[in-house]
Amino acid sequence: MSTLATIPLSSLPLAVGWTVHVWWLRGCLNTARRDPLTGLCTRDGFTRRATALLKDPRAVVMLADVDHFKQINDTFGHAAGDALLKATADRLAHHVGSSGVAGRLGGDEFAAVVIDDHGTAGDLLAALHGVLARPVDGQDPAVRTTVSLGWVRAVDFPDDGLSGLLRRADEAMYTAKQGRAGLRRAGLGWLFATVTGRRAGRFSARNDAPAVGVAA
Question: pTM for the complete prediction?
């Protein structure tokens, strides 16, 4: 066999080994961007996908927080709390679908970005709010709670990036939770909750900018 023929053959194991290594690294990276309990994107994975989706003017940003989660953990144990989080994540991911992204930002807090093709985000999120309140399959029926949702249309705040939109959704969610409304959309009015110092430091919150409008 000629020398020229042996050179490519000798480099073949190295090329195969490098390809396998690259795939392994990609697998590790994908795993790191998935929450081990719920399977949703972690904050890093969510941020990457959500930022890309926000290039679409139909994008809607949503933030969800499980109500009374600590009480569930304290009363029924952490296994029950984990089951509730997993069920919430599964239901959220189902409603978001493959065209959007859902993530667990930490604890009992979830976020999503969806593309609102038909301008019906309010109706769809109202339906989701009802689904998230259902008992967890296979668990004690008492292991249930509601989820407070805040959402915002990206087109309403064209100067805001993901951080700003999450902040607005967060403020809307908090207003919904305080008023037991369950669901609230960020709009164009001033938000008293932030003026009084609501969760300083979360999502680049400022005391001079957030806004919340009417529900639905």
Answer: 0.73
Spatial separation of the C-alpha atoms in residues 114 and 60, rounded to whole Å? 5
Classify 32 as helix, strand or coil: helix
Q: What are the pLDDT digits (tens) for 43-100?
A: 999 999 999 999 999 999 999 999 989 999 999 999 999 999 999 999 999 999 999 9
What is the spatial distance between Cα 157 and Cα 164, in angstroms, rounded to a whole number?
9
How do beta strands 147-153 and 109-115 pair?
Answer: unpaired
Nearest to 111 by CA among 133, 92, 129, 124: 92
User: CB-based burial of residue 194 (10 Å sphere; 0-12 exposed, 13-18 middle, 19+ buried)?
Assistant: buried
Cα angle 164, 160, 101 (rounded to 5 degrees) comes to: 70
φ, ψ of residue 210 in degrees (nearest 5): -60, 155
Residue 59 burial (CB count, 10 A): 22
CB burial of residue 80 (10 Å; 0-12, 13-18, 19+) = middle
Residues with catalytic roles: 108
